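ok so I'm stuck.
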Amino acid sequence: MIRVLIYEDNPQFREGLTMLVNGSDGFSVLASYKNCNNVAEEVEKWSPDVILMDINMPGTDGLEGLKKIREVNAEVKVLMLTVFDDNKNVFEALRNGANGYLLKKTPPAKLLEYIQDATLGGAPMTSSIATQVLKMFQVIPQTKNQDYCLSERETEVLQLLVDGYSYKMIASELFIAIDTVRSHIKKIYEKLHVNSKSEAVAKAFKDKLL
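replied:
not stuck anymore, here's the structure
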């Protein structure tokens, strides 16, 4: 059962999301909120697998809420679900540790697929968002390759993350247990000083680690 927490200020959309998730096999909504004013406490209380996070909310918005989540929990998957697809919001969300960035017009079946993908270690993005991310990488200044002291195995795992592999696929490719994959990725995050797959991939490109 994939346990979901929802942050969305529009009551109709929030109710629609709740009905969609609760009405689908293998998914359950733990709770839903209209803003992120108490997000750290709520995440600790519910321990969700995935958080669907709107950006533009009254009080504490989604980008600030994401920062607060990462201060207390680096593991929970946070998918930004929003009408905004501008570069600034995309960059801020990924920099603050989002695991994916989806538009609210995403079809229901696809949204459920994206939620499941995130729990498996994926970084789902609406195609228009993915295009923007690729363009951002293209304009990143070339910098000297920094030495983060990654081991040979950690470098292999990072390469597979960049190639879009999920945790399960990495385990299969390298013939190791999925818990071993998680251990390697945790060490990679620590060495790169990041909190999510999207941040690790961005740093790999930015600092030419591969």
